[in-house]
UniProtKB/TrEMBL annotation:
It comes from Parapontixanthobacter aurantiacus. PROSITE patterns: GH10_2, TAT. The keyword Signal applies. This is Beta-xylanase. It comes from the Bacteria. The keyword Signal applies.
Length: 402
């Protein structure tokens, strides 16, 4: 049987049953079969603003999108199983990206098995509803996000060879399964240790000799599978002063990759921008626009494209008052989008890391939690699916750029 995800858009729209999970290169694809058809999406009657954010983004030649999850058996999450949430995604977005469903912890339960069931849920849903799909991520380069088996793996007598085999097999399995469906991948995610200002050591890098050996192999393997695909290095740079050292480290990493001929096409800028302090002069958090533009100039000067891959706003130090807080978040968002959209000729797709507050990861991320215990309001829609001033700010920025 083939090891590709083979639900064509024509068949998906016709309601054809999806093929069962099949083996990838002789490895088990898991023991949980996917649903026989794409999840149905019931309209809820929500009147979302027009034009959509996707329509406005398309005027600039790009997609607007969001992360989405798969939570089988649950409809109370930001997932393809939640009809109300998918109604919002369809109304506003033209692209989705898996939140966790493509990461090693999910798809690689052991060295010899793959389980694509949850990723297949998202792939089927995106096809059935005509949304483009990004890949995130082929390698999250952090030990705390490796599966336990990989952190403790015995690489044997030839560790470099065995590590390379594990990595290339993983990339081959994922890209082959979604070949023709996903053309832009975050190949490597977060390879910099911001405390050490250097690349992160992992079990793979110790086996292969250095983190750079792992990163380079990941990109070269992805290029073999996707000769025309967009290969992205993704990281959490931002324009706040506390990110400046990290930004410089990312520049050095990219410069090294380009000088070694590594096939990297773009930088994915996560853009989890922060209001952790308040600047009395502006009433919002301090940011360094001049330094940020210099950073973007250096990235694009290497010939690399830009993407906004995971946008949201951390509002920890803003007032409790909802109207005031939403206004400041919107203003900060507009400032950031205006700068990024000044790089229109280099900027590709724009994705949120969730569209409504209660499903956004910041609610559970300790450094982003508010001292008053209130919900972080860092996405375009409230937890009741109501558009916020942030949504207006994004729409106005997109419209002005177009």
């Amino acid at each position: 049987m083939p090891d590709r995800f083979e639900l064509s858009r024509r068949h998906a729209l016709a309601g054809m049953a999806a093929m069962p999970l099949v083996s990838c290169g002789g490895m088990s694809a898991g023991n949980s079969a996917p649903p026989e058809s794409a999840p149905t999406v019931a309209l809820t009657g929500e009147a979302y603003p027009k034009p959509s954010l996707e329509t406005l983004a398309q005027r600039g030649g790009r997609h607007f999108g969001s992360a989405i999850a798969s939570t089988p058996g649950r409809t109370d999450a930001g997932s393809v199983q939640n009809p109300r949430y998918t109604d919002l995604i369809k109304a506003e977005c033209g692209m989705v990206v898996p939140e966790n469903e493509m990461k090693w912890q999910t798809v690689r339960p052991s060295p010899d098995t793959f389980d694509f069931s949850r990723m297949d849920d998202i792939a089927r849903w995106s096809q059935a509803n005509g949304l483009a799909l990004r890949g995130h991520t082929l390698l999250w380069h952090r030990p705390q996000w490796f599966p336990d088996w990989l952190n403790n793996y015995d690489f044997g007598a030839n560790p470099a060879t065995e590590a390379a085999r594990l990595l290339t097999k993983h990339i081959e399995a994922v890209t082959t399964r979604y070949k023709g469906l996903i053309t832009s991948y975050d190949v490597v995610n977060e390879a910099i240790d911001h405390d050490r200002n250097d690349t992160i050591e992992t079990s793979l890098s110790r086996a292969m000799g250095s983190p750079e050996e792992v990163i380079d192999l990941a990109f070269r393997s992805a290029r073999e599978q996707l000769p025309d695909g967009q290969l992205v290095y993704n990281d959490y740079m931002s324009w706040e002063p506390q990110h400046q050292k990290h930004n410089e480290d990312v520049l050095r990493l990219l410069e090294g990759m380009v000088s070694r001929g590594v096939p990297v096409d773009a930088l994915g800028i996560q853009s989890h921008i922060e209001l952790f302090e308040i600047d009395p002069a502006t009433g919002v958090g301090p940011y360094m626009e001049r330094e940020w533009r210099r950073f973007l100039d250096e990235v694009t000067g290497m010939g690399l494209r830009l993407l906004i891959t995971e946008f949201d706003v951390k509002d920890r130090e803003l007032p409790s008052n909802i109207a005031e807080r939403d206004s400041k978040v919107a203003d900060y968002t507009r400032r950031y989008f205006d700068v990024m959209l000044d790089y229109d000729a280099h900027l590709d797709d724009i994705l949120m890391w969730g569209m409504i507050d209660k499903f956004n990861w910041l609610q559970y991320f300790d450094p982003a939690k508010r001292a008053d215990g209130l919900e972080v309001r860092g996405t375009p829609y409230t937890s009741n699916y109501e558009p916020k001033p942030m949504r207006t700010a994004i729409a106005e920025a997109l419209a002005a750029a177009a």
